[in-house]
């Protein structure tokens, strides 16, 4: 683990997708990413890079990737 990295919250994650027009951020198209934003004890917010839609999912799901950002 890099102590200088963290998982972005849902708003930051959406912003990474929205502002990726410059190609500076490597977000795989059609991939869902976890955010650090908790929805409930068992769920967290995630987003899909295809359409930028945010949704909640069970934290035990392994269908999502993580994209860390610098602190």
| Radius of gyration over all CA atoms, rounded | 12 Å
Low-confidence stretches: none
The total of helices stands at: 1
User: Strand tally, please?
Assistant: 5
The arrangement of helices and strands along the chain is EHEEEE
CA distance, first residue to last residue: 13 Å
Characterize the biggest β-sheet.
3 strands, antiparallel
Task: Kindly describe this structure.
By secondary structure, this protein is α+β, with helices and mostly antiparallel strands. Helix content is 13%, strand content 31%. The chain contains one helix and five strands, in the order βαββββ. It has one helix spanning 10-18; strands spanning 5-6, 32-38, 43-48, 54-58, 69-70. The strands form two sheets. The protein has a three-stranded antiparallel sheet, with helices on one face. The protein has a two-stranded antiparallel ribbon with strand order 1-5. β2 and β3 (43-48) form a beta hairpin. It is globular and about 30 Å long.
Characterize this entry briefly:
The protein is built from 1 helix and 5 strands, in the order βαββββ. It has one helix at residues 10-18; strands at 5-6, 32-38, 43-48, 54-58, 69-70.
What is the topological layout?
Elements: E1 5-6, H1 10-18, E2 32-38, E3 43-48, E4 54-58, E5 69-70
Antiparallel strand pairs: 1-5, 2-3, 3-4
Question: Which properties best describe this structure?
Answer:
71 residues, alpha+beta, 3-stranded antiparallel β-sheet, 1 helix
């Amino acid at each position: 683990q890099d102590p200088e990295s963290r998982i972005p919250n849902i708003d930051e994650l959406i912003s990474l997708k929205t502002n990726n027009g410059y190609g500076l951020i490597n977000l795989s198209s059609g991939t869902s990413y976890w955010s650090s934003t908790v929805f409930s004890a068992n769920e967290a917010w995630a987003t899909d890079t295809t359409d930028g839609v945010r949704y909640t999912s069970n934290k035990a799901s392994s269908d999502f990737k993580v994209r860390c950002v610098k602190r």
